[in-house]
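Example S7 (structure tokens).
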């Protein structure tokens, strides 16, 4: 179910990068909105602009032109501190390569966003961390370091960390690329459940159409543009959905 105003909105978003061989248009006039309660997948070949789009939506890089509005605030209007604060409250990022801090235990990684919050979070950090570790099946691994976990376990810890400050928007960049099929399914069904509880909106960049087929909407990117949008009706067979996406 879709709730209220968008969590994040992009309007005519463009970004180019300078390279040795000249400028590359990584994003070209992209429009997009993600609401709470929605699970949106972003598919497209390598180099089509998925990572660039997620990083602009998260305020990690500035756009060349266009506007990103995150929780009602235009990113271009914020100074560095304002942007950092909004990003922490608004966005949970999940990466292909987990990006856990190798010198921190699982528990310390999951707790980190709560320690970075400048405003007091509306929950007890220790309780919140324990709850997330339990939810993600990690209590027995909590005192280990990331290198002592499997890829899938690291990704579960990374998702728990992304959720720690309870950000409404979850941006996941190919989170299942380095984990086995069973774990991929578990990760995607957890993302699906976050959207279904109505509080979160999820944007998942993926190569894998089977993962994308769990979404409410699938946006296909090519050469920095969204070239196709497919709305998926629940209750269809996986085969039908995949045929529609192909
Ligand atoms: N920091 C960068 N410097 C130069 N080119 C970049 C940079 N980041 C991305 N690109 C280029 O922008 C395009 C889009 O890349 P990206 O957003 O990573 O696509 P995707 O995530 O879909 O693989 C590609 O041509 C890529 O080479
Ligand atoms: Mg990418």
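Recovered sequence:
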């Amino acid at each position: 179910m879709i709730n209220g105003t968008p969590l994040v909105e992009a309007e005519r978003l463009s970004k180019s990068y300078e390279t040795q061989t000249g400028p590359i248009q990584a994003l070209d006039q992209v429009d997009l909105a993600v609401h709470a309660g929605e699970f949106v997948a972003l598919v497209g070949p390598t180099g089509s602009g998925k990572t660039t789009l997620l990083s602009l939506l998260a305020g990690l890089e500035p756009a060349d032109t266009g506007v990103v509005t995150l929780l009602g605030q235009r990113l271009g209007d914020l100074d560095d501190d304002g942007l950092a604060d909004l990003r922490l409250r608004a966005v949970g990022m999940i990466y292909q390569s987990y990006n856990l801090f190798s010198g921190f235990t699982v528990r310390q990684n999951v707790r980190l966003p709560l320690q970075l919050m400048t405003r007091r979070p509306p929950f007890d950090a220790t309780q919140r961390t324990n709850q997330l570790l339990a939810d993600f099946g990690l209590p027995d691994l909590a005192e280990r370091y990331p290198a002592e976990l499997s890829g899938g376990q690291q990704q579960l810890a990374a998702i728990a960390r992304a959720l720690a400050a309870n950000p409404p928007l979850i941006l996941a960049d190919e989170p299942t690329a380095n984990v086995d099929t069973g774990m991929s399914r578990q990760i995607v069904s957890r993302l699906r459940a976050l959207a279904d509880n109505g509080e979160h909106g999820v944007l998942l960049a993926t190569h894998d159409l089977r993962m994308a087929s769990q979404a409410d909407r699938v946006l296909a990117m090519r050469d920095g543009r969204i070239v196709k949008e497919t709305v998926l009706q629940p209750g269809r067979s996986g085969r039908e959905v995949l045929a529609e996406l192909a």
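Notes on this example. The beta strands are 3-19, 22-36, 39-43, 65-70, 73-74, 91-95, 169-173, 201-205, 217-222, 225-231.
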